UniProtKB/TrEMBL annotation:
GO terms for molecular function: cytochrome bo3 ubiquinol oxidase activity; proton transmembrane transporter activity. Belongs to the cytochrome c oxidase bacterial subunit 4 family. GO terms for biological process: aerobic electron transport chain; electron transport coupled proton transport. Its main location: membrane. It comes from Paenibacillus baekrokdamisoli. One of its GO terms (cellular component) is plasma membrane. This is Uncharacterized protein.
Amino acid sequence: MSNEHSATEEHAKRHKHEGPRKHIVAFIFSILLTVIAFAAVSAGEVNQSFIYIVLIVMAFLQVFIQMSFWMHMKDRGHIFPTVGIIFGIVIVFTMVIMAEYWAWW
């Protein structure tokens, strides 16, 4: 019984529960980013290039929040999913660049 108790304590030391506070803040920030993106698109008299830049920045921030807080990629021990995501991004960018190269020639 003492081995089970010490294993539980060890698990608790390594994986501290964050509580709902950070999740609520991340949720509010995600909603705020969505509202900003919607407002940028809804504003009719704004330069279209500026809207594209705002949307791309909001998308990157949204991905960072989703990965960090909801998928817990900020925690230790997530090296293999991180490597997989980076590998997937490299493959997608390579495919897009090759498709553009193929279409131009």
